[in-house]
Amino acid sequence: MVERSIDELERRLVLIEVKAEIEHVLKSYCRSADRRNVDAFRDNFHPDSTHNHIPYFKGLSSDFAQGLTAHLDALFTSHFLTNIEIAVDLDAGTAVTECYFMAAHFVEADARKEAFSGHRVGVDEIWWVGGRYFDRFEKREGRWKIAHRTGVHDWEHWQEIDARGFKRDVAEVPEEGPFSPQWVRKHMPFSTTQ
Q: What is the DSSP string of the chain?
């Protein structure tokens, strides 16, 4: 058995907690985008964070967050992450991450062309996007947030919806009881800072 000092074990435990907090931010980005919650979306970034979402946007992450309003032209979106890699420098209070993403944007026939440039107006479609996020995180005022994000689309595909169409009667989120937003916040804490 390998013996480790208490200091080394404590440092490893802190590293595990930091990686969990960073992964929470990565997932919160997706969740808040899909919920179209601009305030929660912005909270994943430091105020001066920059964003380079190739080839669609380059500027402040707070300005990129305003683009969530374009998602209102989609019936709904679903963002997924996988292959999350996190490298942390505890002493510097920085980290870099890379993860794969896949996003499905369910775009109705009457969506504005300005919101989805590849959309064929008059046709219900799904805009599939696969790519990678490269992030630089910084710990400021006790919280790990994204200081810079580069998003790369490795592939995109527009899929026409067949005659069966979209399911338009998507279930309503309960306002009370199990799995309401209040219940989730109380019973399923997502962050080590809560």
A: -----HHHHHHHHHHHHHHHHHHHHHHHHHHHHHHT-HHHHHTTEEEEEEEEEETTEEEEHHHHHHGGGGGGGEEEEEEEEEEEEEEEETTTTEEEEEEEEEEEEEE-TT--TTTSTT--TTS-EEEEEEEEEEEEEEEETTEEEEEEEEEEEEEEEEEE--TT-----PPPPPSSSTTSHHHHHHH----TT-
